[in-house]
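Researcher: Let's try something more involved. This one mixes different molecule types, so please make sure each is placed in the same coordinate frame as the others.
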Amino acid sequence: MMTPFAKKVYSIVAKIPLGQVRTYKWVAKCAGRQRASRAVGTILKNNPYPLIIPCHRVVKSNKTIGGYIYGEKRKKMILELEKGIAICLANKE
DNA sequence: CAAACTATTCAGC
DNA sequence: GCTGAATAGTTTG
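Model: All components are placed in one shared frame. Result:
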């Protein structure tokens, strides 16, 4: 099921640049419900395309890992990888 | 750490 | 439809 709030969340999260991270609160605020940070987490884990939605770029407010379908450890690893990729792209340009 | 709060979903009635 | 419970959170104490 796709609620308007979820749609907005997907659109916003999908636009997060490589190597960048956002917080659940930030996403919730952009989606129009700053207090719905919790719903963002539930939505992201129930998202229809967990592979094309960079949920690993969404973290808690204190930058700690909230959760991840493949495990918090993978999420952290992916974040480090993307950070390196972003630097590589920046150097190339 | 525990409690309250929030938006959404799900099971039961 | 409503209520109660649950969730990858946040805030307050």
